Amino acid sequence: MSSYSAREATRRGSVVPPLAGVDRPVIDTVPSKCDVLICGTGLAESILAAALAWQGTNVLHIDAHNVYGDSNMCLSSKDLTTWIETVANGSEPTGMNAQFYVSAPGNSSSRAQRFLFDMSPHVMFVKSDMLDLLIKSRVAKYLDFKGLSQFHTYESDSFEKVTGNKEQIFTDQSLSLKTKRKLMKFIKFVLEWTIEENEFRALSNIPISLYLEKEFELEKAQIVELVIAIGLCDHLDVSASYALPKIRRYLLSLDVYGSFPAMYSMYGSSGELAQGFCRSAAVAGATYKLGVQLTGWDEQSNIATLSDGSKVQVAEKAFLSPTQPSPLRPLVNVDQFADEDINQNVPQGDGSGDLGSKNKNANTIYNSFDNLQRLKGTKYAANPYSSAYRGITSRMVAVVTNECKEWFKDGESAAIVVFPPGSLSTNNEYAVQTIVYGPGAGIVPEGFSCWYLNTHNPDKQKARDDLNDALSKLESSILRESNLGHLIGSLSGEDIAYKHGAAVVSSVRLGESMQNFVPQKRLNYLFKLAYTSPTSKGRKFNKVELQPVLPGSDTLLSTLFAPGEISYDGIVSQARKLYESVVGSDDDFFDVDFEDDEETEALDPLEPIDPIDSMKDTVSGSPDHPAEEVMHMEL
Amino acid sequence: MSAPRIAQFKLVLLGESAVGKSSLLLRFARGVYEDNRESTIGAAFLAQNVRLEPDLVVRFEIWDTAGQERYKALAPMYYRNANAALVVFDLLSQESLARAQSWVRELRVQADDGIIIALVGNKLDLLNQLKAESPNSSGKIGISEDAKSYAAEAGLLYYECSAKTGENIEAVFKGVAEKMPINEYFSSQEEEQQHAVDLGASSSGCAC
Q1: Measured between CA atoms, how close is A239 to chain B, in angstroms?
Q2: Neighbours of B166 (CB within 10 A)
Q3: CATH code of residue B17
Q4: What is the predicted pLDDT for the residue at B193?
Q5: Where does A123-241 show beta strands of DSSP type E?
Q6: How many A-B residue pairs are in contact by the CB < 8 A criterion?
């Protein structure tokens, strides 16, 4: 094993440990010692592992599941079946209400192998701390990114494409000159961002909708577009100080790598990134083992017992993700999260852990955390388990037999569709956000697309109803749009039905020409899955206090629930917080000198290349020349 | 003289830990055998070039297992889109050949159908040395014959080489390079590049 310790590494500054293991001796059992043990390979934990490993810390990283990612995992069809069984067995967070539907897919086995299911889908804004970190850490080199430019808003039964940049505003014929001028004024304000700190802080009490209406005289349609689509906020009453940076993020992200504000990684989002950071950690010497869980912890000796029977002496810290099964504590109960959020208050535990609720047992651990915090006199808001920091995210995944090309820009394979509050027949209080992936995203094969819907309504049942309604809206919309292609040539009465009354859907491409027609043909769902996950809220976690897994322990800490947003906001902040709890500060977080920079010579195509004698190893890319030629390998 | 065309492919290394995968890679990459090496290969992977024709270069992006194979924790990412795999074994170890065979089975499950797999026996220098020391030995030295027949049966490329002396290393990579779908690479390239985001091409230049 590596002889580097965190302390030594700190003294030495950034070090590059020896390349891990391919020709080190085979070891059958996990190491008996490590500096830091991390249980759970979620994205924040994986970033932590890589940051620590590159800083010289000896990391043992395990996961109870046989796949990487923890709550961020990305599953093959086969893994998904296993996961569903696990949920049914109760060894995943309880109360997830996972519902699963598969159509009789005929010859699914060969085809189905090519499906991937992203348990927590994300898109990446170009201007984001996550992308900066991916480039700096070189983990971006393991990933393939594609642009995502289409943000659609569903309003008044139609899809509107978001008017996100100046050019679009100028050319958008549906906007009046007056509206254009006001929008331009607002966009200029956001981009220049000359707002004073105390003025900005005061905005935390002002709903964004009111602010945009009063300060910029924007109309409802533009406000919805800016806040719900561009800003991806949950509703119009979020504070201006929350929403403005999110709107700004979109605008700043445009035209950095192309005419898109966001990107997605192929073959899955956060789970793919987690794999990349784990690989990076392994290169720096971290040890990986999957399918093994933390079963025991001795607080006196800091010895961890794992389910494979091994015992590990932990020198510095151990972390257990709250979504990892472990007999050390009960699993999270999603219902409790939801209930608290609805009541907008904190848990009312009285010290006995008895809430008189049906979820009594599962509540206990969080009550004990809460009580501990009270005893310590810590501010409640700093408790990551308080409702200020946590909530639920209800999700629905559907694979349909339609490529949904109509929603993508030419050459792209993904789009965002948002359903603003009040736009669904359920009169949804919270926005429903959807990521649609077509065949080019490496998630579904040709002929299919995958729809990921999510909402943050704290009422699980309402959230589920909203998702179902949004799904049916998506369905009728895509049917209408894809049917139009056949319309000119071969329209028959059986293809299309006439619907009386209000128009049902229209689209950005088709305008309103087909609003009164509804096709009778139904979309085929290869599969549909709905579930609810416990998630974190917010973007900044630097003030939270990490909680011990067992009361009184200060070495074995619980990590944080993965944020429920579809952007990567908050994850780097969480990883930094975890890192700080080990190293004492996050100053040198991923401050890695890769040492090979001087060897990084770009290949000169004019130089004759001899395969063996004059070979120069060009370790691909460097912070100075990020990912030149590496971004695309798929052939 | 015009610049050579460069076709890029992903190559993964597999095999039991003690067979010398990294040494082999380093030998190829640097042309140096470091007996007692403490390498700093960096965060990503090696990019190495093989010139097939005066105006055609195959660039391998070589992924090392980084030790994640030790507890079978190799991520799907490792196998994904790999065009070639070198499955390395020790010419003197029957056990390492058995492990190599299980890696080949793993590749058949995890990797793309079109992947080119080369079975590579390392430590040819040791094998030759043993043979030289006992020229009249009637007993079998090494496991070349078993390995060769397995490779033929399984449809694998087969090489014997020495990371220590450099013998035959070039042939391994050149042989694999020749099997790469070069024409397909160039024909799909144009389309793919339009869609992929090049993180090195930030127009504002401040992405990092």
Answers
A1: 28
A2: 18
A3: 3.40.50.300
A4: 62
A5: 124-125, 145-148, 151-155, 158-161
A6: 244
pTM: 0.82
CB distance B11 to B82 below 8 Å: yes
Point out the residue among A22, A132, A288 whose CB comes nearest to the CB of B21. Answer: A22
pLDDT at A435 over 60: yes
- How far separated are the first and last CA of chain A, in Å rounded? 38
Nearest alpha carbon to residue A564 among A597, A531, A588, A613: A531
Q: How many domains does chain A have?
A: 4
Range of the domain at B167: 5-195
The Cα B203–Cα B199 span in angstroms is: 10
Residues A169, A195 within the same domain: yes
A11 pLDDT more than 70: no
Q: Which two tokens stand for residue A461?
A: 């049942």
Beta partners for residue B58, in sequence order: B7, B50
| CA-to-CA dists, residue A297 to A322, A550, B116, angstroms | 16, 9, 46
Q: Half-sphere exposure of A143 toward its Cβ, with a 13 Å CA cutoff?
A: 32
Q: Which residue of B has its CA nearest to A631?
A: B198
Q: What is the 3-state secondary structure (H, E, C) of A211-260?
A: HHHHHHCCCHHHHHHHHHHHCCCCCCCCEHHHHHHHHHHHHHHCCCCCCC
Please state, in angstroms and rounded to a whole number, the distance separating the CA atoms of residues B192 and A459.
43
Fill in the DSSP letter of residue A536. E
Label residue B110 by pLDDT band (50, 70, 90): confident
Q: Is A633 a domain residue?
A: no
Judge whether A594 lies within some domain: no
pLDDT in tens, A588-616: 898 876 655 434 433 333 333 333 333 33
**Which tens digits make up the pLDDT trace of B47-98?**
788 888 889 999 888 888 887 887 878 888 899 889 999 999 999 999 999 9
Find residues 377-436 of chain A whose CB sits inside 8 Å of chain B. Answer: 411-413
pLDDT digits (tens, 9 = 90+) for B13-28: 888 777 777 778 777 7
The token duo for B54 is: 């005066």
Tokens 């096709």 locate to: A519
